[in-house]
Design goal:
The protein is built from 6 helices and 12 strands. By secondary structure, it is α+β, with helices and mostly antiparallel strands.
Length: about 290
C-alpha cells in the first residue's frame, strides 16, 4: 500500500476519534439541570452549583447528620402522616391540597381518610396505646433526647425561612443545641430548627422542633383527629406521658399554631411548668 495513502488514513482516523470525544463531552456539559432532576436521564449526578437545595450538614458532619435526622424523623412521625401518602384522595397537585388545608394542616379521622390496611392498623395501635398507656409508643422511649452528645454544641446562628420562637424557656435553662434541617434555600434559609435547653443545676431538659409549613412549597401536614387528646389555650394537641427507668417522666406535645408545627419533649420538668412553656409558644404565635 502507498505510504502516503496509509499516512492519510491514520490522520483521518485520529481526527474522527478526537471529534467524537469532543462532541460527546460538550453534549454532557450542556445538559440542563433543574432542581435535583436532570432533563437527560443518563445523568446520574450533578454538581452542587446546579442544585438549589442542600443537606443541613456539610460532608464533614455526616455522622451528626445521620444521628440527628433519625431522631428528628421519629419526633415528627408520632401524630402525623407524610403528605406523600394518599391523603384520602387523588392529590397529584399539592397546591389544591394546600388550598383546602388550614395553615398547611389537614385534620382527618381514621375512619374517613384513605389509609391502606397496614397504615390503618399502625395508626389504630398508636391511638389505643395513647388511651391505655398515655403515649402512642406504648410507654417506650423512642426519639426523646436521643444522641444528645452529637447534638450538643451546635449553636451556630443560621438563616431560616420563618422567625423561630424565642424567650419561652426559663432563665435557669441554658441552650446547648440549635440544629437546622428541612428544606433549604440560599434566599430564605432552612425550614426547620431543633433546639435543646438544659438546666445545669438539676439536669432537667426541654427539646423541641419547630417546622415551617411553607405555602410556597405546598407543604401539608396530616394529623389524625383521634390522636388529639389535649388542648392548651384552645389549641388541640397530642399530649403524651412516658415513665423513665429512673422513675422520672417525659412529657411530649405536638401541635400547630399558624403555619408552624411543633414537637416538644421535656424531662425532669413539672407538668404545669411544661404546659406554661407550650402556652408561651401559642400566645407568641397567635
Amino acid at each position: 500500500m502507498n505510504k502516503n495513502l496509509l499516512k492519510w488514513i491514520f490522520i483521518l482516523l485520529a481526527v474522527f476519534v478526537v471529534s467524537w470525544v469532543f462532541l460527546n463531552f460538550v453534549s454532557v456539559k450542556n445538559t440542563k439541570v433543574t432542581g435535583t432532576q436532570a432533563t437527560d436521564d443518563s445523568i446520574t449526578s450533578v454538581a452542587d452549583d446546579d442544585i438549589n437545595t442542600t443537606m443541613p450538614f456539610s460532608s464533614q458532619n455526616n455522622d451528626k447528620k445521620d444521628a440527628f435526622n433519625s431522631s428528628l424523623d421519629a419526633s415528627s412521625e408520632v401524630s402525623t402522616i407524610e403528605n406523600k401518602k394518599s391523603l384520602g384522595g387523588d392529590y397529584n397537585d399539592f397546591s389544591k391540597l394546600r388550598e383546602n388545608s388550614i395553615d398547611g394542616v389537614r385534620i382527618v379521622s381514621i375512619n374517613d381518610a384513605g389509609f391502606d390496611t397496614s397504615e390503618r392498623q399502625d395508626i389504630l395501635e398508636k391511638i389505643n396505646n395513647l388511651k391505655m398507656s398515655g403515649s402512642m409508643s406504648g410507654g417506650e422511649i423512642t426519639h426523646e433526647f436521643s444522641d444528645l452528645n452529637l447534638k450538643r454544641g451546635n449553636i451556630e446562628e443560621k438563616k431560616t425561612s420563618f422567625k423561630p420562637v424565642d424567650k419561652i424557656i426559663g432563665k435557669e435553662f441554658v441552650m446547648t443545641s440549635k440544629v437546622y434541617s428541612g428544606a433549604y434555600s440560599q434566599d430564605t434559609g432552612y425550614s426547620s430548627i431543633y433546639q435543646l435547653y438544659e438546666n445545669p443545676s438539676n439536669g432537667a431538659k426541654i427539646e423541641f422542633t419547630e417546622m415551617y409549613l411553607d405555602p410556597k412549597n405546598n407543604t401539608v401536614m396530616e394529623v389524625v383527629k383521634e390522636t388529639l387528646n389535649h388542648s392548651i389555650d384552645n389549641v388541640p394537641m397530642t399530649f403524651e406521658t412516658i415513665k423513665t427507668p429512673d422513675s422520672g417522666t417525659i412529657y411530649n406535645a405536638q401541635f400547630n399554631v399558624g403555619k408552624n408545627y411543633y414537637s416538644f419533649s421535656s424531662q425532669g420538668v413539672a407538668p404545669d411548668e411544661f404546659e406554661n412553656v407550650l402556652s408561651k409558644v401559642i400566645k407568641k404565635e397567635q
